[in-house]
Amino acid sequence: MNLRSAIALLLLALVQPCAAAMVEEVVELPVTVKDMYGKSVSRPIKVTVFRDDALPRAPFLILNHGRAMKPEDREKLGRARYTDNSKYFLAKGFAVFVPTRIGYGVTGGDDVEYSGTCGGKQYLPGYEAAAEQTRKVLDHARSLPYVDGSRGLVIGQSYGGATAITIAADNPQGVIATVNFAGGGGGNPIDSPERPCRPDLLEKMFAGYGATAKIHTLWVYSENDRYFGKERPREWFKAFQDAGGKGEFVQLAAHGKDGHPSFTSNAAAWKPAFEDFLRRNGF
After folding, report:
1. d(C-alpha 245, C-alpha 198), whole Å
2. Is the pLDDT of residue 69 over 70?
3. Are 251 and 273 in contact (CB under 8 A)?
4. Burial (CB count within 10 angstroms: exposed 0-12, middle 13-18, buried 19+), residue 117
5. Percent of all residues in the chain with a pLDDT value above 70, rounded to a whole number
6. Which of 4, 15, 35, 247 is 20 to 30 Å from 236 at the Cα level?
């Protein structure tokens, strides 16, 4: 290669746009929440952030994890990432924030989402604790220069899905819509499959959320959800909608032995409905 050719190649490289790169980073946010006994718990939570460094400003997406039944499994969560799902959302143009909530994995601390025995459930405090942590993540996301704080989503799986509806009841600034993947509580697929604890209280809770929620919501459940069954989620959605909530319910076909984890194990089934929901909400 002669000198002229080498210079030409160098100049070409300099004018080429840089390839987009996924950046993954971890931040700590101090939060204070209350458990079902009214005890205040303060602790910094770890938040995994995925962003595209080629995008000067992107809408935000907060993604909340579920709740394992056993304490040792909650500890084993490590740092919540949902890597494949997060990369998909990143490709859709979002900056993605995945908190590891108090009582889980690398964040640790008290189990502030404990809701009592099966017959004596108190669901509201646990979801409020999860929602308060989500609000702190929202505040942080909106403060960042690479985030468009006026446009974003809150999404969650299982316990995190119900938390997304808790957030919808608040109508927080900048949250255009929320998405509930298999949301609920009190499920036990081993000892009482498809028969969650006190579903009537969950129905009442979702009705209360529907009375104040003004933003759009999407509810996605599988037909063979071993935690909540086929009918209970429809009843919860109907209570939400009848109380005034705006929402759409999508029931996926049965998947494997348990469709509850379809958010991660059956993404091809829900992506068409999700992407249509995005388009209709301006994303």
Report:
1. 22
2. yes
3. no
4. exposed
5. 93
6. 35
Reported pTM: 0.92
In the structure, what pLDDT confidence band is assigned to residue 10 with cuts at 50, 70 and 90? Answer: very low
Predicted pLDDT at 20: 57
φ and ψ at 32, to 5 degrees?
A: -130, 125
As a whole number of angstroms, the longest Cα–Cα distance in the chain is 82
C-alpha radius of gyration, the chain, whole number: 20
Burial of 108 (0-12, 13-18, 19+ CB in 10 A): middle
The angle subtended at Cα 53 by Cα 145 and Cα 57, nearest 5°, is 35
Q: Measured at the alpha carbon of residue 246, what is the angle toward residues 147 and 51, in degrees to the nearest 5?
A: 20
Convert the pLDDT of each residue in 166-188 to its tens digit: 999 999 999 999 999 999 999 99
Cβ atoms of residues 45 and 117 within 8 Å: no
Nearest to 114 by CA among 150, 156, 154, 159: 159
Residues 237-263 have a mean pLDDT of 98
Q: Which two tokens stand for residue 12?
A: 């070409």
**Contacting residues for 6 by C-beta, under 8 A, at least 6 apart:** none
pLDDT value at 14 more than 50 = no
For the chain, list the strands marked E by DSSP.
22-34, 40-52, 58-64, 95-100, 147-157, 175-181, 216-222, 246-252
With tokens 């290669």, the residue in question is 1
Residue at 176: amino acid letter:
I
Give yes or no for residue 251 having a pLDDT over 80. yes
